[in-house]
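Thought: the user asked what Aldose 1-epimerase looks like in 3D. I have the sequence; next I should run the structure tool and report back without guessing.
Action: structure_tool
Action Input:
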Amino acid sequence: MTLSGNQYEIFAGPYEAIVTEQGASLRALLHDGRPLILSHDADEPVPAAAGQLLAPWPNRIDHGRYSFGGESHSLPINEGDLDNAIHGLVRFESWGAAEHERHRVRLTHRLLGHSGYPFRLDLTVEYTLDAAGGLTVRQSARNAGSRVAPYGHGAHPYLTLGRPLDECELLVTAGRYLEIDERAIPEPETREVAGTPYDFRAPRRIGETAINNPYTALDRDGDGRAWVRLRDGERSVALWAGEGHPWLEIYTRDEVMDETRRTGLGAEPMTCPPNSFATGIDLIALKPGEETSGMWGITAD
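Observation:
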């Protein structure tokens, strides 16, 4: 048995993907045998949150502290150097496969009361491959407890073309972003991307630009999708975020000090920005019995 547990393979036309029992993570996604995301061995610890699902919050909570419903909470710190609680509570947990067909897999996890998060959620994720459209992911949460729960989710794939990001063109259809401080906590007010190094509304080469920022004010197409597209002139890979995800975190992996540094682009669909448990920005207050969901996907467009 591997470190990441059972490996669920799915196929459709030129696409194939592998989803793991641990965290219901997207470990691999290929098109005609070409990797579309950074992958890793099934028996290797997950590097830099690659392919993981982030719930019940994405990204960071400042010092792990927040207030909700008139009560103060303190989450365990798992980013010790920056003193933050990061990426939720379920990315290393075991998820069960409820359905597994050739082209799709659906996994579930019950999150019970946790230190700093005294709420109960039933979480579901479904990965579906289509020969023409690529990968579609649906993330859902239902409040299975007796009290209103704060909630947000995200996902953490790294898009790749197998070459340095410096040589690639990037498109991000977003008009505003959040600046971050030295502990990677964003300021509460958004800024216009116009006139900044973070403006990728028209495709342009990334070069040496370092990005680790949340984007919003997403410009969507007729299907309600906002896009992140990485292109090298010959090939491209794109992530789309559905309307349930009003935020995108873009990350160029500058802090990753190994051979994969700046070879994959973190393109992370999110329901809320980092630190939303503390700020309340786009935080979902999920009532008992209520369900929320969002969709995103990746294609070799």
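Thought: the tool returned a structure. Summarizing for the user.
Final Answer: Structure for Aldose 1-epimerase predicted. The domain at 7-299 is CATH 2.70.98.10 (Beta-galactosidase; Chain A, domain 5). The helical segments are 276-279.
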